[in-house]
Amino acid sequence: MIEQILTATGKYFILMRKVFSKPEKFPIYHTRIYAEIVSLGINSIPLTAIISIFIGAVITLQMSISLQNPFIPQYLIGYATRETMTLEFSSTVVALILAGKVGSNIASEIGTMRITEQIDALEVMGINSASYLILPKIVATVCSFPFLSMLSMIIGIVGGYIIAAFTGIMIPDDYLEGLKYCFVMWEITYSLIKMAVFAFIITSISAFCGYYAKGNSLEVGRSSTTAVVASSITIMIFNLILTQLMLT
After folding, report:
1. Is residue 2 part of a domain?
2. What is the residue range of 169's domain?
3. 158 located within any domain
4. How far is CA 95 from the centre of its chain?
5. Which of 38, 45, 52, 76 lies 20 to 30 Å (CA to CA) from residue 151?
């Protein structure tokens, strides 16, 4: 088991070296990056928005039920919603969700190209297939996923306000006061940095699993599953490391 992990890790870093080698033609990469931003980033907005608005509403609802105490200020509900969305949900949890959607998509796409010998054809033509296929995806996700994280924060907080205003569980002005209470801009920066790191992890690991897929179409499905599991585990490990480095 340890030998397999070490072998896979070595192959991963060798692949990343090929990915970040000098591109042959920059204009082609620009076009591919824009296309990948649409495919991997913009197309993920609906899923991110739907999940975020409901999570923000649920957090507000649960906090209001748990903090029904006259000695606890109601504005702390808005504060707790903001902190939860900013520090963890909009970066870590959204990244785990995108690992399932985007990661499996990348692994299956590149894996299909591998088993149908399209990657071999690119190599025969003298094209660096690793850089041509993977680098635009990495650049696209690293640029677009922090935007998704910011969008998730905003929509989640709006979802909390909506549930507060339309259910009467708390005074909306108290919720808004909680949003401003002890606000630290570094928390937003911390979340965006984490999301950029997670974007690289998701894309690179998923591309690695697809790039080295072997066999038939069944193996493509297995590589997609492996990509999601490996990405999720790595995200949780780096979440712990980044939190220790950036918040302590």
Report:
1. no
2. 24-247
3. yes
4. 3
5. 76
**DSSP tag of 100:** I
Residues 238/240/245/246 CA torsion (nearest 10 deg): 90
Q: How far from each other are the two terminal CA atoms of the chain, in whole angstroms?
A: 34
Residue 173 tokens read as 């002005």
Total number of domains in the chain: 1
How far lies 200's CA from each of 66, 145, 194, 222, in Å? 38, 10, 10, 21
Query: Residues with Cβ < 8 Å from 30, sequence gap 6 or more?
Result: none
Per-residue pLDDT of the chain (248 residues; tens, 9 = 90+): 778 888 888 999 999 998 888 776 777 788 889 999 999 999 999 999 999 999 999 998 888 888 777 777 888 888 989 999 998 899 999 999 999 999 999 999 999 998 888 888 888 888 888 888 999 999 999 999 999 999 999 999 999 999 988 887 888 888 888 888 888 889 899 999 999 999 999 999 999 999 998 877 778 888 899 999 999 999 999 999 999 998 87
Any domain includes 224:
yes
The alpha carbon torsion through 99, 104, 106, 108 (nearest 10 deg) reads 170
CA geometry: angle at 186 spanning 184 and 191, to 5°?
Answer: 115
What whole-number distance in Å separates Cα of residue 138 and Cα of residue 225?
Answer: 19
